[in-house]
Amino acid sequence: MIGKALQQYATDLGLTVSEKCAYGVFNGFLVTMYDTVSKKTVFVNYYLDDSQESAVRKFNLSESIKKSIDEYQIEDYQVEDNGVTVIIKDSIVKLSEYLPILIDSLTEVGMTGISVCSECGSEITGEAKKAAVSLKRYGLCNSCALELIQKMNKLESDAVAEDENSKKPHGFLAALICFLVGSAAWIVTYALEVFGDGNNIILAFLLSFIFPIITIKLYDMMHGSKGKKKIATVCVSMFLMIVVGMYFGSFFEYLNSNGASFKLMLDPINWSLPFESAETSLFSIPIVKEALVSVLAGAISILLFISNLFKSKNVSSKIELD
Ligand SMILES: [Zn+2]
Predict the structure, then answer these.
(1) For the purposes of burial, counting CB atoms within 10 Å of the CB of 266, is it exposed (0-12), middle (13-18) or buried (19 or more)?
(2) Distance (Å) from CA 95 to ligand 1 centroid
(3) Is 44 within a domain?
(4) Same domain, yes or no: 208 and 110
(5) Same domain (yes/no): 138, 274
(6) CB 223 within 8 A of CB 169
(7) Do 209 and 293 fall within a single domain?
(8) Same domain assignment for residues 15 and 119
């Protein structure tokens, strides 16, 4: 957001150069400069009260900027109660020529710069506190800076509290719902596999690909916590889905190969059958194949759709004190 030329110019003026802008005191005024696409923006902070004189000052400043529009390629400007923003097209040369002129007009119309607080107008002894709103810097006295910090903290904690109240996290419930629906779909797939025409590998692949996406969507809709917790929840629900599917698949396989009736499944005494017969090749090859494909598809899907979740964590507050 700040190019080489602007960086150099700001350094020459003795301003502080940060990643996104340059700011500091120039000829008695707190100045902020930054680049936007092929444009240079300069903001000069000042103090105005609500008086009639202030309105006249604003008007006079506006008039004097108007006169410079053509000569200094001013694309846009905005005179506000606590500062003026001027956008200059392209060249740093025009900006460097215009900045001293702008500061002169501020002084001429009777604006007060960094010697007073731009919020309350009281005289600043020592160095002014610099508050950044978006990028623009505002010079504040100690008590206004303190007030601002308190306000910021309050806003932040209010926002957090509101967030917590309005968005009760039900991420676990979302994962549970998806697990139940997914497991049912899996059981049907394996039942079709065993009792049907024998090969549902594509269906298994699609299911394992789609379910993490559905789980992630539902998890977000139900305000589940972000970050690692989300990844873990989606992975675990996917894994359990496949395990449940395999369990039932093995059961169906057993019933089918032994000509046993479905009633066998209803008696808890038989529920360990899929584990007991694991050695005797009960996990028949098609089911194992499908389970592997499922794990693979699930992993691809999770990787594809969860990668952007690492990014969006905390958004920092817009107002900062330098
Ligand atoms: Zn103040």
Answers:
(1) exposed
(2) 30
(3) yes
(4) no
(5) no
(6) yes
(7) yes
(8) yes
First to last CA, the chain: 18
Of 158, 188, 204, the one marking the end of a domain is 158
**Are residues 189 and 302 located together in one domain of the fold?**
yes
Ligand 1 centroid to Cα of residue 123, in Å, is: 8
CB-based burial of residue 127 (10 Å sphere; 0-12 exposed, 13-18 middle, 19+ buried)?
exposed
The residue range of the domain holding 91 is 4-158
DSSP state of 73: T
Kind plus residue range of the DSSP H or E element containing 61: helix 52-68
Our count of domains for the chain comes to 2
User: Where among 158, 188, 215 does a domain terminate?
Assistant: 158
The answer to whether the CB of 95 falls within 8 A of the CB of 33 is yes
Q: What is the CATH number of the domain that holds 100?
A: 3.30.1460
84, β-bridge pairs: 44, 79
Question: How many angstroms separate the alpha carbon of residue 120 from the centre of ligand 1?
Answer: 4
* Helices and strands (DSSP H and E) totals, the chain: 10, 9
In this structure, the answer to whether residues 142 and 10 fall within a common structural domain is: yes
Residue 268 is assigned to a structural domain of this protein: yes
* pLDDT by residue, tens only, the chain of 322 residues: 688 899 999 999 999 999 889 999 999 999 999 998 789 999 999 999 999 999 999 999 999 999 999 999 999 999 999 999 999 997 789 999 999 999 999 999 999 999 999 999 999 988 899 998 888 999 999 999 988 888 877 877 777 777 666 666 788 888 888 889 988 888 888 787 777 766 677 777 888 888 888 888 888 888 777 777 888 888 888 888 888 887 887 788 778 777 777 787 788 887 877 776 655 554 555 667 677 777 888 888 777 776 655 444 443 445 677 7
Residue 121 Cα to ligand 1 middle (Å)? 6
Count of Cβ atoms closer than 10 Å to residue 128 Cβ: 24
Q: For residue 144, report the distance from its CA to the centre of ligand 1, in Å.
A: 4
Pair 36, 140 in one domain: yes
